[in-house]
Structures are given as structure tokens and as C-alpha cells.
Design brief:
Layout: H1 3-20, E1 26-27, H2 28-37, H3 43-55, E2 59-64, E3 67-72, H4 74-83, H5 89-111, E4 112-118, E5 124-132, E6 135-144, H6 147-172
Antiparallel strand pairs: 1-3, 2-3, 4-5, 5-6
Helix pairs in contact: 1-3, 1-4
């Protein structure tokens, strides 16, 4: 294996390792922030690594309102178990430290979901949720007359979901 191939394999293993260490999906942006901040590789190479991991079914991805969520698959876990020893302990330590330091922020960023779509009636439906361990903690649908309002609802949900949840629980319990 050439040094370039070895390095590229390492980048893919770093992604798998990061995804294996959390119990929730990470966004491409979150993984990219870490890898690029540590200067392990460049943006384009990392995008190629994401694509090859997905093509090989080592990670799965889903997109929601301009965010791509990544999760390791069972096949990815097996691959990591087999080849994970190729990740230098210093890199593992970097990943572990980063995840420990930022875990709450990372989880909060991906647990709050908001998207909207146009309904058959022509109105827009904002679908809002807070996820916990792949299950909705709270899920709301709000119908509004125009797309701008739906986008605003989604943006505001990101900032005010805790307040809304607290209000709902106070009123209903």
C-alpha cells in the first residue's frame, strides 16, 4: 500500500472511530470541524473519505435541512474492529478528548431537528423534534401559510426548543 493510500485509509478510520464513540449521529460538519482543526487532512480529501465510507456501507447518512447526519453501520464497526489498530494512540486520544470536551454541545446540535415541506393544500408544515437515542422526546407539526414562516419556525425551534418543551410539560403534567 502506498503512503497516500495508507493516509487515506487512516482518514476513513478516524471518521469511523469518531462515529463509534458516540451514541448519536454526528453531522458531516461536526466531524469535519475536528479533522480540519487538527489538520489531519484537507476538506476535499475528507469529502472523498465520507463518500467512499458511505459507498462501502461503513457509514449511513441522512440529510435534513442542509445538515447531513452520519452514523456508523454494523459493517463499519466490524471494519473498525479489524483495522482500528492502525489509528495512532495520539489520534485516538485527540478524538476521545474532543468528544469528552464537546459531547453535550455535539449531542444538542444533532438532537434538535427541524424541517418543513409544502402540503397538498399549499400551506407549509414545519416538522419539529427533539431526539434522544433515536427516539423523539418531543415531536410537533405546525402548519403555516407561507414558506418564510415555516423557515422562521424551524430557525426559532433551534433556539427555543427547551422553552417550548418546558412550557408543554408544565401545562400537561
Amino acid at each position: 500500500m502506498t503512503p497516500e493510500n495508507e493516509n487515506f485509509t487512516l482518514y476513513k478510520l478516524i471518521v469511523l472511530y469518531m462515529l463509534s464513540k458516540v451514541s448519536f449521529p454526528l453531522t458531516k460538519a461536526q466531524v469535519s470541524d475536528f479533522v480540519l482543526e487538527k489538520e489531519y487532512t484537507g476538506f476535499l480529501t475528507l469529502q472523498q473519505a465520507f463518500a467512499e465510507l458511505q459507498e462501502a456501507d461503513l457509514i449511513s447518512s441522512g440529510t435534513l435541512r442542509n445538515r447531513t447526519y452520519l452514523e456508523i453501520t454494523e459493517e463499519g464497526r466490524k471494519t473498525l474492529a479489524f483495522f482500528g489498530n492502525r489509528i495512532h494512540h495520539g489520534i485516538r486520544d485527540d478524538v476521545d478528548h474532543y468528544l469528552k470536551e464537546h459531547k453535550i454541545r455535539l449531542r444538542d446540535e444533532v438532537s434538535v431537528r427541524a424541517t418543513y415541506h409544502k402540503s397538498a393544500s399549499g400551506a407549509y408544515v414545519a416538522e419539529l423534534a427533539v431526539m434522544e437515542e433515536h427516539a423523539p422526546l418531543v415531536s410537533l407539526s405546525l402548519t403555516v401559510p407561507v414558506e418564510e414562516m415555516a423557515a422562521a419556525v424551524c430557525d426559532n425551534w433551534q433556539e427555543k426548543h427547551r422553552e417550548v418543551y418546558r412550557c408543554l410539560t408544565d401545562l400537561l403534567f
